[in-house]
Amino acid sequence: MKCVVKAAAGSGHLALVNRPVPEPGAHEVLIKVHALAICGTDVHIAEWSQFASDRMKPPMIIGHEFSGEVAAKGALVTQLAIGDTVSAETHIVCHTCEACRRNDFHVCSHTETIGLSRDGALAEYIVIPAENAIRFNKTLSWETLSLMEPYIAAVHAATAFPAAGNSAAVIGCGPIGAMAVGVLKQCGAANVIVVEPNEARLKKGGEMGADHLVNPVGIDLARAIRTVNEDRPVDVVFDFSGNVDAIEQSLSYIRPGGRLSVLGLSDHLLKLRLDRFVYNGLTLQGIAGRRLYGDWETGRGLLRAGLRLDPIITHVLPMENYQKGINLMKTGQCCKCVLKIE
Ligand code: NAD
Ligand code: ZN
Fold first, then answer.
1. Which ligand is nearest to the CA of 103?
2. H or E element at residue 338
3. Which among 13, 34, 41, 156 is annotated as catalytic?
4. Where does 2-147+309-340 sit in CATH, by number?
5. Model confidence over 238-270: pLDDT tens digits?
6. Residue 29 Cα, ligand 2 centroid: separation in angstroms?
7. Atom of ligand 1 nearest to the CA of 40
8. Which residues touch 26 (CB under 8 Å, ≥6 apart)?
9. Which residues form the Enoyl reductase (ER) domain (predicted)?
10. What is the DSSP letter of 106?
11. Is the ipTM of this complex over 0.95?
12. Of 52, 117, 152, 260, which is most buried, counting CB atoms within 10 Å of its CB?
C-alpha cells in the first residue's frame, strides 16, 4: 500500500513509500482510508519540533485525522461490520491506569497516539483497535468525516460549560476554534465573539456563525468586547490559540463568576493575577483531547441537529501532494487541508 512515512529524525525526511497492508489482530479492524485531514501535529512532525522529537520514533507513518471504511476485522470484533463508515479516536488508552479506572480516559497515563507514537493514517490502510473506530452514517462526505477527531475536541472544549443563553469569547479561530464557534451557536450561545488576528481566519469565524469578529491587534480589546456585548463582560472564554498573553488578558473582559476553557497549547508560563482570579471566583478548565466516548456522541448529535462543518475545509488535494498540504497548514493560508486517498 502507498503511505507517507517520517523516515528519520530531523526536519523534512517525509517520503511516499510502499509497505505491506497490515493485518488486524483479534480486537482490531483494518480500515481502507478515504480522506485524511492535516493537523498542526503533522507540521510539527515535518519540521521535527521538540514536541515531535519527544514523542515519535521514526520510521513511522504519519497522519491521524481520517475517515474510511472497515475492510477487515479481527475474530473478536462484534460491534463493526465490513463496509461500515468510520472515523477514529486517535488516543488509544490503557484501561488500567488510575485515570482510566476513574473514567478519565482522556488523560490516560499510557496514551498511545495514532500517527505519533504508532503508525498513522496517511496510508491506503491502517489497523486500529476496534474500540477506536467510530461508526457514522454515510450522510457526510469522506472529507467532512476526516474532521471528526479535531471536531470532537472542539465539542469537548465548547461544552465544558453551558453555552445556552451565555455570551462567549472564542480566542483563536484556527480549524478547532472555528468548529467550536459552530458548536457554541448550535448549543444556543447568545453572543459569540471571535478574537483572531488573522483576517481570513476571522472571516471563517463569521462563516461558522459568530455574532461578532474582533481583530485584537492595536486595540483596547476589553473595551471592544464590551462594545459588542451590550456593554457587559462575557460569561465564558474559550481559548484555541495557546497564546498565554491572550488568555491572561481575557481576565479583563470576563465577568465575575466566569469560566475559562483552555484547549490551546503552549510550553510558556501562564501568569494569572491570583487576587483577581480568586476574588472573581473564576473557573479554569484544561481541555485534553476528547472524553471517551461521550464527546463523540454529543458531536454526532450536534451534526444531526444541523451543525455544518464544510466551511472548515478550504483545500482538498490528492495524497501525493502531502507536502503542499503541510506547507499550507504551516503558513495558516488555509483553514483545513484534506488529502484524498483513492
Ligand atoms: P491553529 O494554530 O491553526 O490556530 C490557532 C489560532 O490562534 C491561529 O489562527 C492564530 O492566528 C490564533 N492566535 C494566535 N495568537 C492569538 C491571539 N493573541 N489572540 C487570538 N488569536 C490568536 O491551531 P488549531 O489546529 O486550530 O488548534 C488550536 C490549538 O489547540 C493549538 O494551540 C493546538 O496546538 C492545540 N491543540 C490542543 C489539543 C488538546 O487536546 N488540548 C488538541 C489539538 C490541538
Ligand atoms: Zn490509562
1. 2
2. strand 336-340
3. 41
4. 3.90.180.10
5. 999 999 999 999 999 999 999 999 999 999 999
6. 21
7. 25
8. 74, 75, 76, 77
9. 10-339
10. G
11. yes
12. 152
